[in-house]
Amino acid sequence: MNIQAYKKIALDSLYHLLDDTALNYLFTVGEIRRYKRGEVVFLESELADYFYLILEGRIKISRLNREGKEVVIAILCPGNFFGDMAILDGLPRSTDAIVEEKAAVLAVREEDFYTLLKDNPLVAIEMLKELASRIRNSDSQIKGLSLLNARGKVASALLRWAQDQGTFTEESGVIINIPNQQELASYVGLSRETFNRILRIFVEEGYIEKLGAKKIIIKNYSQFKVIFGPFF
Question: Would the N or C end of the chain have less CB density within 10 A of its end CB?
């Protein structure tokens, strides 16, 4: 992609409130970094000095549990931002950020990020809204993991992926470029075998349709959300 395409992605995300001057400032002070799949953007406990906006590809946000197993917190797509929490509170990184799919990100230094917020208060307000939404989603995920059975956990994960990176028709929700099943299973705290078994049950019951390894259709999204979305 060229710089204009990347700017459009920025405008379509949190930065739709930026004028041309502010947007040009962001891309002037920021550095476009390109990564291959599996490369590390940052690791948990590292000091934070950059904020990131995804321009292309996907970034996996995860951490290791006490047993040393990876727990997937989120997989972010173009237009999403990350690395903001440690910049805002001044503490080390709380998660790992690993490239899930060949990616390009705009890396903005801490001081330039703060200049952006000070000069564009509406952007700061939108960021607060996004952070509040993340906290609410995390709370919902925690409740779901602790209170839902395995079937509910998988359904809740599908609903969240549909909201974050899905497209919608009048009745259905289409999830494309989904993470691999091991990562999805980790996201809901289940084994891969259990996760796959529940997906097959949802297919047999007519709730979803699988098209290859990277696409799932929730056939009646509204009904599915009513039935399986108490913590969504």
Answer: N
Question: Is 0.90 surpassed by the pTM of this model?
Answer: no
**Domain coordinates of the chain in residue numbers?**
3-144, 148-228
Q: Give, for all 232 residues of the chain, the pLDDT tens digit.
A: 777 777 776 666 655 566 777 788 888 999 999 999 999 999 999 999 999 999 999 899 988 877 777 878 888 888 888 998 899 888 999 999 999 889 999 999 999 999 988 888 877 887 788 777 777 666 666 655 555 788 888 888 888 778 777 777 778 888 877 777 777 787 777 888 898 899 999 999 999 998 877 789 999 888 888 887 655 4
Reported CATH class of domain 3-144: mainly beta
Task: Measure the CA–CA gap between 47 and 93, rounded to whole angstroms.
Answer: 6
Q: CA-CA distance, 16 to 120, in Å (whole number)? A: 12
**Strands 96-109 and 50-64, bridge-based pairing:** antiparallel
Supply the CATH classification number for the domain 148-228: 1.10.10.10
